[in-house]
Fold these 2 entries.
Entry 1:
Amino acid sequence: METVQAVPKRNQYGQSSSSLPGALPDQITTTVHHRHRALRSPEITPFSGDPAYADLSKVPVRTASEVPYRLQMFKIRMVYASDVRKEDCEVADERIKPVVSEANEKALPDLLSDPPQVEDVLQKPEAELCPLWIKKFDRELMRTLSFSEHETFDHPVACLLVVSSMDKEPVNKFVDLFNTNQLPSLLNEGIMDPQILKHYLVLHDQQEGPQDIAVNILAEMRSTLGLNDCKLLCINSSTEAGGSNADNSWLPYKALGLNNHDGSCFISVDDLNEIKDFMQDFVSNHIIPYMEQKIRVLNQQVATTRKGFRNQIKNLWWRKRDDVPEAPNGPMYTFTSIESQIRVLGDFAFMLRDYELALSNYRLLATDYKLDKAWKRFAGVQEMSGLCYFILDQSRKDAEYCMENAFSTYLRIGSSGQRNATRCGLWWAEMLKTRGQYREASNVYFRVSNEEPSLHSAVLLEQAACCYLLANPPMLRKYGFHLILAGNSYYVSDQKQHAVRVYRNALFVYKQNPWSYINNHVHFNVGRWYGVLGILDVAIKHLLEVIACSHQSLTTQNMFLNDFFHYVQSMGKKFDVYKLQLPVFNMSSLKVIYEDHRTYASDADVGVSESTWQELEEELIPSSSIVRTNWLDTQPMRKYKDSCICVAGEAVKLNVELKNPLQIPVAVSGISLICQLSTTLDALSSDVSGLDLDGGEDKVNTKPSISMFETDGDKFTLSKLDIVLGGGESKRVQLDVTPKVEGILKLVGIRWTLSESVVGYQYFEFDAQKKIKKGKRGPRRSLNNSLVVIKGLPKLTGSIDRMPTKAVAGDLKLLTLNLRNHSEYAVKGIKMKLSSPRFLIPGDSSDIGLEFPDCLKSHMQSESSVISSKTLKDNFKSLLFAFPQDIEIQTGAALSWPIWFHAATPGNVSLYISLYYEMGSSSDIKYRTLRMHFNLEVLPSLDVSFSISTSSSRLQEYIVRMDVMNKTPSESFVLHQLSCVGGKWAVSALPLCSSINSVETVSENQAVSYFFKIKDCEADSCKEAESGSCTSDMALCPGSSTDLFDIARSPLADFHYQERYRQGKVAKGPCSLLDFVLISKAVGNSSKPTPDFELLSHHTCHCSSLSQNPIWWLMEGPRTINHDFSKSYCEVNLQLVIHNSEAHKILVRVVTFDVMPEKSQTVHPHDSTSAQGGWYDVSLENDVKTISSSKSTHQEKQSSKSISPYVWCSLSCAQIELQPDSCARVPLKVCIFAPGTYNFSNYELQWKVHPSEGRHVDENEKLLSGGGLGHPFYVTVLQSV
């Protein structure tokens, strides 16, 4: 015997079109034989719920109105009486969990496939985006609210009582089954109406006996229980219990959930059809008419008691109470209360699809429940009102308002309304999705997820993510974010497969975006969960994406790296990883260094632009090679002239920068190149190793195997490097490959081992289409991965001993250039080209073995080192030096050659040297070059300047002031020697000024000035030249007069002419007068040793006088005269000597004045003629003029009232013509009327230059005309006794 309750059920849209599975057998009934299981509730359900077997389109339905309509689809749910009860929440959740767990196990095979891409996901329809099991989960989640007290959808409508024909006294069994003591508690407690439709069924198994027994029982039932409420159903009429025929008879019904269990059922197709007809009859002729009658009766009662203005006022007055207690469920309502009856009316009308009738009753109930503060029942009718509005499509705004009101009210109740809020949210989201409002639906799913446990929340969040993807336009970021939230909830609920699945689906969202933190979170968790599932290779693949996370904290980086190495070691083998991101190889820093006919002394020399070397080697390389575009034009390998060339036995180097992005040290071992060497030259035209090395996306995905590039020790050798990179450290490393045979060498990539467990490799991404601009970087910088290997060639290596990287200005050194031949053949024809002869000058063979600086002293110099002025002037600009022709460097031999170094000027200087040498044997290349490059920092030392003024006491004599400023912060210097370049000038101290030797040492930051005079030794008036005491060198410190350096010999003379040439380019003003060379020495003491620089030479060129007059003049005559003025006035004869220093004729006019013109007079306090007569100061110090004075002092204007003490006589004006470089004397006479000391300077010279024929005068250098006042000339006249 079984008691089955029939309940019409609404679906998730509110329509009565879905069914739920049946429940377990009743404990108080007799169990039907196992061959009767076709009539158990789960087996009847498909026949009651599928439209094909419950077609009611011909059954008219009429509710409260008189207008009938037809139902298009109607389903009922059948449950056992024992299951009509409120299920505990924890038990219900445990019943839902297998739905997710079953899908969790099925998700594992899909996790082995590649993650979905954005294009594929966007093209999927809605049905494929959300897995099917999620719909089942939603139904099971809503089923947990079955048989609620505040709604009548799950209240029984009919009761089907089934008794077997084999039972004794079957009629009494029917009475016992519906005994009130056996009814569900909800019916006995007054919550559900026990007066429901009853239907009696006799089940007869034809395998147990003839059908006549069942017919007799049916007749007895009808006479006792009623004619129309009793039915007979015969089953198991088949003669075979198994076999193919039995299985085939079940095929049409397998889609409905029916199966031939174990082949033990004897149900035939006729039996199945009979069951279908019974259910159709039961629904159409009993259940639906019963519901129609119930609706009409209830509607009449409601209309009588509640509808109408009077009833509404009465109801409001009766319910208007302030003392109604606040309770989650409000007051208790029995099934007989008017509120419960109205709710039954509304729910029955809703199930029979009279939505307008249902809505009117729900609205009526909403006011009552609100006044009674029955919030759960109020939320329930608001929920149903929203569904009615949605189905009727009357007011979208009202529908959403009702659902929002119901949802928030359920949440306000507390835990008792939480699951109802979830169901309301699910219906609300389905409403929005049906209208295409996916964005709003996702917000509802998110709100619902906050109220559910982690497992339920995960499923709801996944549905929210799918809604964001279906929005227009798709909201990918929110889609990915909600998937991550869902995955985290899945993981908390111990559903790791689901967690991995949703995380994988979010990968494409963060793949191309710079959201590094969430990208690391996704990859790390996916990799970790794959590792837990035992899929280690995929786990390592995802963890590779996070091991180079430089932005993470130290703790996080350690966690990522430890998990990565844990899973790698768990595999038990080394793991090859293409483009391993630890360490990071900066491919933009790649530089290939190889040597063809161009060789380099060091790797730093390769960084110099090719245009610099080409300009330097323009005169060095033979012209026949320059005419051709490439030396290969004359070789058999002409077709490879555009290729890069290297030499067998010489290393090809590759520089690359490595960086550790982490904050923790990383050990990297076995760093080496991946290479191939083909011995056939035709391989150059083929692709490199058959791989696409142009660096595209396909290259990254294909991951070419590294096994095809193993080291071939017979053809080339590779260097291996082991380093440890500290946290955040960057290092530039150099990797070498040395080809041993001729052929084509191909640089494919780099390989390395990380922490002895992971082998990383990366291929070079060469751009074959990129062209290198001519003169920019040249072939050294071109990242061409193919090099033509030719046979071995002779090669020189070179270096300069003691070449400084830092020096002070003026530093002079003797260095040594060392060349060594490491090849098997001799080299010859060596030439050298220097870029800056101001700093470097090749020495001579005689300089080998000399002691510096003693070799520069005058008594140490050999005659061969004397350089004539003409030779220097002709060759000082030459930068090419040829070694002697007889010099050859044999195999394994070395050559040392002196090089003079001079730090000419402060600043950063780059020095370039290129050596050319020819092969001593026949080879493809006839010559090679050795390129050397040095960077030099020159610091300031002594700043030397000179100021020159003409002497007023002697012709061809100058007064010179030398200013010396020590600009070093810690060094001191001794001024050793001052020299005038050339033999024309003699330098000496002033006659009455011995202070030139008073300062021996110039300390740091000290400034000193020196005064001395220079004379023209070639002048006729130079007495020192006649006596042989004229010298151009002057010692500046005591005891150094015997240790003077000869500046007329090499290398001082060479460097001086270089300085004269360079300083002449920037010299301004008139032609220079002379050049100075100041030699100083560094000072050391006990606390501070002597610096590396021992001798400094400072060259100051193109010095000129401050006065630029083309003529010199000087007054000659007696200085002291005795005369008796009592007898007559005194006559003094004078001579004015005028010298033409120009190369042109000059017309000179001499004019004397008894009284100087007013406009040219200046008052001097010490002028002897400021008064008419008397004694005046005649100190010789007045004759030494300071450099800053631009003119001589002049005579003060005499008073017009006094009489002049002397007058000029003989002539007042004279005019002469001076030939170039000649002198003339003009006789003058003056009459003195009283004794005293007189200054005869009141005269003036005026000149005009007359250029010679065919010669041009530079107006910027000399004045074409001008004038000047006379120089002071003092004469003392004494009264004779």
Entry 2:
Amino acid sequence: MTKIKVDFSGKHKNYTRLSMDLKTYPLQNLSDVEQRRSEEDAQQQQQRVTGRLSLLARMSFKLFRRGSARCIGLLSAFVTILLCLYYISIGQPNPTPLSDSGSPTAAGLQRGVGPFGGGAITGITGFSVQQQQQQQQKKIHAAGIVSNQKRSSEQKAEEVPVEQEPVGADSHVEYARANWGDKCYVLLQSDTNITANEEHSRFDFQPEWMRSKEYWDRGFEERFDVQKKDKQRPPLKIIVVPHSHNDPGWLKTFTNYFQSDSRQILNLLVTKMQEYKDMTFIWSEISFLQLWWDQAHPTKQRALRRLVDSGRIEITTGGWVMTDEANVHIYPMLDQLIEGHQWLKNNLNVTPKVGWSIDPFGHGSTVPYLLSGANFEGAIIQRIHYAWKQWFARQQSGDFVWTPYWRTRGAVGAVGTDGAAGSLLTHNMPFDIYSIKGSCGPHPFICLNFDFRKIPGEYTEYSVKAQFITDDNVEEKAQLLLEQYARTASLFPHNVALIPVGDDFRYNKEREVDQQYQNYKKLIDHIMANRRLYNTDIRFGTPSDYFAAIRERMRGKSPGFPSFKGDFFVYSDIFSEGRPAYWSGYFTTRPFYKLLSSELEHNLRAAEILFTLAYNTARQARRESAIKIDEKNYEKIIHARRNLGLFQHHDAITGTSKAAVMRDYAMRLFESIQNMVKMQESSIEQLLQKGQPRHHGFIISEFERDNFNKLPRKMPIQMVSGDDSTSTGGGSSGAGAPSAGGSIGSFVLYNSLAQKRVEIVTLRVQHPNVKILNHEGVELKHIQINPVWNITEIYDMVLGTTTTGTIGRIRTSTRQYEVMFVAELEALSLSTYRVQVDEASYRRNIATIYCDDCHEGSASASATTPEGTTGATTNDFEVRAKPAGDIQLENPHMRLLFDEKSGFLKTVTRKNQRKELMKPMQCNIKFAAYRSAQFHSGAYLFKTDPEQSEAEKDVLEGYTDVRIIITSGPIASDVTVIYGPFLAHTVRIFNTRTHLDAAIYVENDIDFEPPPKNRETELFMRLITNIDNIAGAPLQKDPLKEPTDTGTIPELPVFYSDQNGFQYHERIKVPAIGIEGNYFPITSGAFIQDTRLRLTLLTTHAQGAASYEPGQLEVMLDRRTLYDDYRGMGEGVVDSHLTRHKFWLLVEDMPRGQHAAKPPGYQVPSMQGQMLANALRYPPNLYFLSSVEQPLSGLQDQVRLLPKGALPCDVHLTTLRTLSDPELQLFPSASALMVLHRQGFDCSVSAVGGRELGLDAVCPLSNGGLGPVQLGKLSLRTIEATSLTGLEQAKEKAKENFRIRSLAEVSLQPMEMRTFNLTFSDRS
């Protein structure tokens, strides 16, 4: 076999190793003045204690003279306590600033304020105690925590003056760091009564009742009859909850739904509920509520406030939308919850306490964790697998404590109990759907009698069947209804039933409000008038009433609420013919829009952090012009938060709205992406300039975005003569100084992560003869010049598609080139780089191209280039013909082998620590597609065509013109294979002497082309390996069933899928339900493993993943189904766009000797896996410094926004989000919410030669906590530990929660997420 070996030796072997310019920043010691002041404080403290001792001695002498033995004993106890306090006081410094009189200031007095004994802690700078340069008296808020530092007149009256000592602004007080335990901790699985995947594997997925869709059988009826005779069972209690489910977009756009339905619903509620004094209602979608509030008359606003304050209208969940739980990443999921909660606090002064999630298509365990962190009392879910519905009903376990899947070693006891950290009491609605027909009881045909919406002109099954309640039929109807309610309550041990009365966009007509209320009122009054006869308590109520009632009845009962870990994916309802219908299609549907959401998420987060720091820097430095710009721009951040939040709706990011509605969402996302890029530009301009900003408009994004339905285009950097170039603080002299008259361009790299990172950055230039200089003016040794191809850059296409399945001749662009280089970026930093003309040595960085047809484009390319220039193909890049045989890429860590015909990866051969080749590992990449079942596979559902002999089809066979391009350079080599316009697939490895060398980069450009091409196609990429990812032992069998022959137990593959970028779940194949029921959602990654190896695939956006056969891992890339799947949308999915999918592929070693871990461990990615996932989700942003119109001066080469060091490796800065002013909500306040997430990682898993990867150099492991964290040069007034959405104090879990003087004292458990309210001082 002839092979071409493309490696990083030979031509490029003389390149120097990348030097890691790592700098350490030791903690600063206190100055001599501070030491003397500390000694004086200690002396004063000792004098006060000595004085108190002498006073006590005199008092004790008087007591002693009385001769009382009791007094003597009491005196002895007091003396002992006092001596202990004395030794404690002289053994530690006094952190409380003292006023001139020596008395403790309000900063010390404030501790202990509030219901949990912890209020705002004052006087903090750089996350340490604040000392001002000049003594001055300040008023500091002395009340307990408030969500957004509300400055009302009542609060100002409570403020007390504080005097502070003059200390240099750069000095700080050191606090003891929190001990976070072992650097390499072990995560275990929680101990719970119910584990989702264990129970799910035992279900009967084709029960006898599927055709009727009613699981209530003779067994349930017999149990119900026994319960009615049980005198010990508590009486029936019914809570009737009127509701209206309002989708912020589905069949109509968000705005159209508001105008046609939601506005009228809210208007009717505030009017009619003043008339109907005992009617209750719930509302969830704050996006609609905010729109209504802004347009409502003040009298209606006040009426709503009264109804909310009285508890008759309950705000449930309180998120901006009812979020999808499969495709949404943790950042936008939490951000939309914060946006809704902050709006509610500022406008209605209400804090939601109960979750209401009745329409997402399956439920994950991230939402309960977030709601628990927001101090919720419970949550209600609806759409889970029909087999789960039956199981919970049979077990009477529909109310359970949803518990995180993980725990740390030694964390026992409270885990899984109601009220424990991260756990949430959850109620599963026991029947099919949240409509009246599907929720009053087990028999829908009876429930239809009690939907009293009868609107002239509407003809529905309920309007025909339902009869209004009269004096003549009230007894009969009440008895009929109570029979259904009692059966519902029989499914729970407490005999309480929550009965929703509503449906989609209900109560939008005055007639319906009257009919529903008046008829239910007659039934309720009749039952309560005959309470003894019916032994029933029934009333209108809210979900909070339900949770209060069941807690009351279950208090002291044993067993109490069962604990549950896992999730409820994949959701399934039932087809009309009585077969399962799995909702796994929407995990992948419309990936272009999912990627658009990820792009806004990235840019919004980056803008939030920059804006918070730039705005408060301007405030503290009194830069009025910058403050005005920031306050003017802040409204754009608000709109971006809301547009991103709107798209997390369960019919938006899922891709399950009509095509016109999806376009409306996309235009909102696109507009906010543009605005957030401009916000970053503005903030970067402020932070780069020293002193008062004098220049504006000189920061420009590298991307040009023409339209929401096109990929962003990279623009080439504009280079100007050296005399006119940007002049910065330190780069205009020394090694980095440009020669006179030489062309130079400058750009800024913004690292939005709170850790140092090493990244491969690509930059477009107009000429290949360039070099790159870093912020210190040092030339980068590791750069590479690549061509820009017409097949990867749509805007450079000249020869386009010629015939079906073929493409025109491939050529390189003569106008643009790609510079690839290795950038070392400090944590949360802005670094200025320069690109400069290099005539001398640039050719050593030029990549070599191997391609059979690429050289043919030189003639035509030269003909179209401007006069005086030549085509890049012949002069700039050495293009060689691709020899026959398999293709081989190699770097110091691995060797990849590709098939010569298909161009796809075949094997990965890793190298040991001595750089010797190990045994090859099979790692085939395959592209294929499932054939969609017509009318059974659509936007929501995924089902393969049962009429085809093979479920899969070869989608590439129709593309006969296959091109393979090999690029080899000093820092990267890749193989790109092109199958017409349908697929461009690239696999790349690196030679950077960093941890990136152990990973494989994969990129796919997918274009389904206009329909009817690729119809009924579910495209996937499959990795086929020899990893033996088989379940370690047979699953525990149901003791009620006969034992199964162990020899017939199938080998069930296992894989681990991430959920919302927050946690991972184990997925074990269930053979009984086919591929559609074994596809699971991933948001950032998935992995398979055996006792030797782990293969991890990381991605940029939400999609479906599966491991249906041993050794395989696949991800769905795109879908096209021409037919509707009869789930309400009413149309197929044909609006595909060219979509770019990016992945990291990682092969790592598993630790030895972990075959049977007891207790079972909780599986999470390695540290490198987490770092690559974060880098893929939040890449560095590149901005050009434009100095064409005016020369720039006084710019900083580097701005480190964490000057005292990065956050620990596993602590992710989820957001730093400025809070709106509570009185002027379109303006920013001085407070911001900092959300930190300690991402779990497994440090026992690593690539071969893990220490040689350089991870320790980039981010060394530590157990010392956050350390001396400081944001820029900003001073802080207070740090408050809050609930996750910032509305309340955090639950009391540790003493430091409400005694925060410095973030160095904060404790974060592995996997834990916490929020802190930072209030910045008015002056630095």
